[in-house]
Write a structure and sequence with these properties.
The protein is of the alpha+beta class. Helix 12 runs parallel beside helix 18, helix 22 (585-638) runs antiparallel to helix 23 (647-678) and helix 23 (647-678) packs antiparallel against helix 25 (698-709). The structure holds adenosine-5'-diphosphate and magnesium ion. Magnesium ion binds at residues 221, 348, 475.
Length: 729
């Protein structure tokens, strides 16, 4: 591609004009927040009182919705949606691909005489049978029973996806097989929330008998990159794999750290406000926005919500960011590591537990009694991470996240817990049975009553920890930016639920010894902490010393996805999921297979893109330059006086020729390995083969091509460069 065609194809060096769809005039967010959500307020207004009450009862207590209730809700939903311009409805679900899926049906119902009416029946609201046999099921659906069903999840409100082309009523659903096995990420999440409620209530009854329910809360910070759409379209590695497989570093990257929290450029700002207003309409309580560390990297975060709703909302955030970006001539990159050499993107999942009266269980209280409760839950969580750290690692495994974890910008693949100095010393003192002053003391004096005071000014934030306590919640920082949070959250909820069963047993055992409650609980806290504290780490998680230390402590450090995924189907995980009724053994197996499959297929696509880009873009560009150099050497050599030196051109010609040869050789070898891969059949073997035999071949090829990028004239280089993608917007 010549320089001029590079311009024709869109890289003008100037961003496309943005089109800000915001109407002028001042509009308060509170005036339109949630206007596209069929939430409790709207329902209260539009549903008969009795129906509303019955529906709320089903939602709160997990009861089945009667068909008469479903009919009435469907009618009200349809009226509401049609009045807002919707023509279609869809069951919105989250198959194991990790993204959301939707199949649209129009509301029309023929009523004779060539006329139609809009209608939505209760049974259409409650259940659908999409022809969705192409979604991965990991073997759960054999073709003879290929049907999958979507079923209404009334705990997540229906909403209107209102895009320039028209509006669609989206009904959040779960996706299950004919035999009731989960084919999605949502069903296990709901089951894990149920398990967490049951088991946490079992422990909470010793402290707060008035609580009626425990649920987990989630606030997901979302990182992403924005680049000009024309660059995106001209890099088919980005387009097809989500990341740049080639690209020499820009002279300026993130070394000056002048992007972080910097002032937001206008074009980006227009995009952000546009995306935000779409999300506000959808009831997503976005709270913060800022520039992130890498150039053209940004972040947004909502106020936390109940996990189920927060998971749906994060799926909407990702969807809206991408769609609205396109409107502004931008591409929003959610991939974990789109650019080498600058930071990748993650999702910080802030997570806690709350009671139905809104009390945060991970917030230290004002009384020793409240703090005993706090510490009991805290040590249970630490123990859960210790026991299931390999599974927690598996829950965030993907080919994209492999590039990010442990790359000095994100936590390593070692799952550890950060507590902060103050809390650590409280637990250490408790364990040893001494106060900070080093003297034996009564239970009362273990500093438990002082926790709130010390935590409130606890500012020692450890940004390198994968799982950090931040005062009244944990921040799970190892989740990848493109993830569906349902998966890591299902695992987190489940392992904690499983540990709470043990904690309850331990308390019961202590009480049987006729100990008073307080002494019994302190004994359990002490024991649990002692058994799990090897997973606690306060230092720099990015340092090589930690990897060594972790190995000594026996903590797993699993750096690649296929190896990490094994933890899904370990005996321990299968038993844990089974006993809590979150996932059956066959459901666990199916997830394992879907994830292994996804992994190798992603690397397979990358390999094919590497081959094609080198063959059709980079080598031809380099050959063009090679020819120019050869011409120059020949012509200069022919000059009669022989006084003009051609040694420099010759050297350059040699260098370019060598690099062309090397990249060609790299590709040829990769092709032979791909042939071998094509002869393999099962997902497990393929995943390991692609991880160990194919993926390592990319980086030497890249190195050669990136070197060529530094030699070939700028106008001959066929794809946008890092300095363009990361700095022109
Ligand atoms: P940071 O310093 O990490 O940016 P913030 O206080 O801004 O910390 O919180 C980040 C995220 O944590 C926000 O989404 C916020 O709503 C969420 N958060 C705060 N409290 C809780 C909680 N109890 N449970 C879950 N998430 C929470
Ligand atoms: Mg944070």
């Amino acid at each position: 591609m010549s320089h001029s065609s590079r311009l024709e194809s869109g890289f003008t060096g100037h961003p496309k004009a943005s089109n800000n769809s915001r109407s002028s005039g001042i509009v308060k967010i509170s005036d339109y927040f949630g206007c596209n959500v069929f939430g409790p307020e709207t329902m209260k207004l539009l549903l008969p009182k009795e129906i509303y009450r019955k529906l709320q009862d089903s939602i709160q207590n997990g009861k089945k919705v009667d068909i008469d209730v479903a009919n009435a809700v469907a009618l009200a939903m349809k009226k509401w949606a049609v009045s807002k311009g919707a023509t279609h409805y869809c069951h919105w679900f989250q198959p194991m691909t990790g993204v959301t899926a939707e199949k649209h049906d129009s509301f029309i119902d023929p009523v004779g005489n060539g006329k139609v009416l809009e209608s939505l029946l209760g049974k259409q609201l409650v259940q659908q049978e999409p022809d969705a046999s192409s979604f991965p099921s990991g073997g759960l659906r054999r073709t003879f029973e290929a049907r999958g069903y979507t079923a209404w999840d009334p705990t997540s409100p229906a909403f209107l996806m209102d895009v320039p082309g028209g509006a669609t009523l989206c009904i959040p659903t779960i996706f299950v097989s004919y035999r009731g096995e989960s084919l999605d990420t949502k069903t296990p999440l709901l089951r894990s929330l149920d398990a967490l409620n049951r088991t946490a209530m079992g422990v909470l009854k010793y402290f707060d008998p008035s609580a009626g329910k425990v649920y987990s809360t989630l606030g997901a910070e979302q990182e992403y990159f924005l680049i000009d759409q024309s660059y995106y379209e001209n890099r088919f590695d980005l387009l097809l794999t989500g990341r740049t497989l080639f690209g020499a570093p820009s002279p300026k990257g993130q070394q000056l750290e002048d992007q972080y929290f910097g002032s937001i450029r206008e074009r980006v700002f227009e995009f952000m406000t546009d995306a935000e207003s779409e999300l506000y309409k959808l009831g997503v309580p976005l709270k913060t926005r800022h520039n992130e560390v890498a150039p053209n990297q940004f972040e947004c975060a909502p106020v936390f919500e109940e996990t189920n709703v927060a998971v749906d909302h994060n799926q909407m955030v990702m969807d809206v960011l991408k769609r609205v970006a396109a409107r502004h001539g931008l591409a929003c990159l959610l991939y974990e590591k789109p650019f080498a050499g600058v930071n990748g993107s993650g999702k910080h999942c802030n997570w806690s537990l709350a009671t139905d009266s809104g009390k945060n269980i991970l917030s230290p209280g004002d009384t020793p009694h409240e703090n005993l409760q706090f510490l009991t839950f805290l040590v249970s969580i630490i123990k859960a991470i210790k026991e299931h750290s390999a599974l927690l690692r598996a829950s965030i495994a993907s080919s994209g996240n492999d590039h990010r974890l442990g790359a000095n910008e994100a936590p390593p693949a070692i799952m550890s817990v950060f507590l902060g100095e103050q809390l650590t010393s409280v637990l250490e003192d408790l364990e040893k049975g001494v106060t900070s002053k080093g003297t034996d003391a009564e239970w009362m004096n273990f500093g438990i009553d002082h926790i709130p005071a010390v935590l409130r000014d606890n500012t020692d934030r450890n940004r390198t920890s994968p799982f950090a306590f931040t005062g009244n919640k944990f921040e799970f920082r190892a989740v990848g930016s493109a993830f569906n949070n349902a998966v890591p959250l299902t695992v987190l909820n489940s392992i904690v639920a499983s540990q709470l069963v043990e904690t309850k047993k331990e308390i019961e055992a202590q009480l049987k010894l006729k100990k008073p409650l307080k002494a019994a609980v302190i004994e359990v806290i002490r024991k649990t902490y002692k058994e799990s504290k090897s997973v606690c780490f306060e230092g720099n998680n990015y340092s090589p010393e930690w990897a060594k230390e972790a190995q000594k402590r026996g903590l797993p450090n699993i750096t690649s996805t296929p190896h990490a995924l094994e933890a899904w189907r370990s005996k321990k995980s299968v038993e844990m999921f089974g006993s809590l009724k979150v996932l059956s053994e066959s459901e666990v197996e199916s997830r394992y297979h879907v994830l292994q499959d996804k992994y190798w297929k992603e690397i397979d696509i990358e390999a094919k893109v590497v081959i094609e880009m080198v063959q059709t873009q980079f080598i031809p560009a380099a050959v063009e330059y090679q020819t120019q150099l050869a011409d120059s050497v020949l012509k200069l050599g022919k000059l009669e006086d022989g006084k003009i030196k051609v040694s420099f051109q010759k050297e350059l010609l040699k260098k370019v020729s060598r690099l062309i040869e090397e990249s060609q050789e790299g590709i040829e070898f990769l092709k032979t390995r791909m042939e071998k891969a094509a002869s393999l059949s099962d997902a497990h073997t393929l995943a390991f083969f692609y991880c160990d035999e194919i993926k390592p071949l990319f980086s030497p090829i890249r190195k050669t091509v990136d070197e060529l990028e530094g030699l070939v004239p700028d106008h001959l280089w066929p794809v946008p460069k890092y300095r363009e993608m990361l700095f022109i917007l």
